[in-house]
């Protein structure tokens, strides 16, 4: 009797396990069905259900795929707020200065929701050592543009730069950049502040920079200083196709560009970046383009020697991200001392 009773109990428990397994299986099937209809992510529920089911029975239960539902709910990356190309016009032999600028811009924190490319721009190489050393730079850094021109400052280099870009960056995209900035190689640009200034501005027919002459505040009266000015991409394309620009390339490059826009009735969206852009202070009483270093700075121009670069970088705390390590000890300041070895 006892054996028969134990047999009945075991059979009852088996029936109960089968019934429980069947109920859970049907519940999972229903969950999968509603997931496919409503695209609801039920991964957590599935995990709980599956663990309960496999703890009670060794029966293999088929699982439904919820990856598609999860993928459907994963937000796609947001496009950058702006895409900016900064072309630093320099000379092939300026190896040390280029390396400094790579450090200056490469160590600035990434700008949120913006793509900023810094490229060094010069004309054709004309020395054997350049052909080797510049080639190595390109192989390692891939940040150099070599224009088809003879090196110059005011005989058409800026025109060659802007007019070459549409073909260089031709692609299936409507435009590779929203803005292009032409910059000197003696200017320090704070990328985050520049992007913040550009984000709310129009993407079309834009001309942005430091108005000339120094006391001028109306961007429609004259032109922007060659220290660093920004054009929207449509103006870059216009320069490529315009006879106005093609037939007037010689002269002070910043003034010449202002003439193009004036004669072509372009650049209707003009913005003066003063006082956030200025020259390094050496004689404030005499030079009205200068200003004391300030927290609201976008760029500082005329950093013609190592002392000015170091003082500027110290003021803006360019090394604040340096991590402590047992491998080195870098004191915070050594006063105004600058090593006599110069990178400029």
Percentage of β-strand residues:
5-15%
What would you call the shape?
globular
**SSE sequence, one letter per element:** HHHEHEHEHEEHEEEEHHHEEEH
What is the makeup of the main sheet? 7 strands, mixed
Report how far the terminal alpha carbons are from each other: 103 Å
Cofactor: Mn(2+)
Protein name: Hexosyltransferase
GO molecular function, one term: hexosyltransferase activity
Subcellular location: Golgi apparatus membrane
Characterize this entry briefly:
The chain has 344 residues and is of the alpha/beta class. It has helices at residues 2-38, 43-56, 67-73, 95-106, 128-141, 157-168, 191-198, 233-241, 243-246, 253-263, 306-315; strands spanning 82-89, 114-122, 144-146, 179-183, 188-189, 206-209, 211-212, 223-224, 228-232, 269-272, 277-279, 299-301.
Explain how this protein is built.
By secondary structure, this protein is of the alpha/beta class. The chain has helices spanning 2-38, 43-56, 67-73, 95-106, 128-141, 157-168, 191-198, 233-241, 243-246, 253-263, 306-315; strands spanning 82-89, 114-122, 144-146, 179-183, 188-189, 206-209, 211-212, 223-224, 228-232, 269-272, 277-279, 299-301. It has a seven-stranded mixed sheet with strand order 3-2-1-4-9-6-10, with helices on both faces. It has a three-stranded mixed sheet with strand order 5-12-11. Strand 1 (82-89), helix 4 (95-106) and strand 2 (114-122) form a beta-alpha-beta unit.
